[in-house]
Fold this protein.
Amino acid sequence: MKKLMIGLGLAAGLSLTGCVQPTGAAITTGVCGGIVTDHVAPAAYDVDNAVKCEKKGTATCKGIVLFTTGDNSIQKAMENGGIKKVHHVDVEMFNILNIYSTATTIVWGE
């Protein structure tokens, strides 16, 4: 019984390790809720004030438990929004109990 309880404790701990937690080098804030995360943060991308902020392009990556799929690169978001010059980039993160997660790159520009 003691081994079973230890095994269940280890399994529970490993299931909360953030396997599909939306993270990345472009995110400048490391805020992540323990149960639900849902926020938009600026990306580590310099703002170019010479470029107008008139178009928006998005690209999303999704994850379920240990599997992730999608392309949320800046290039893909630019293609989806028809953007040639970038004003700034934001990142939207959504996560429920590290079981289901999405990360969306939002590019603003012209």
Remarks:
- The first strand starts at residue 36 and ends at 42.
- The first helix runs from residue 2 to 15.
- Residues 65 and 107 are 27 Å apart (CA to CA).
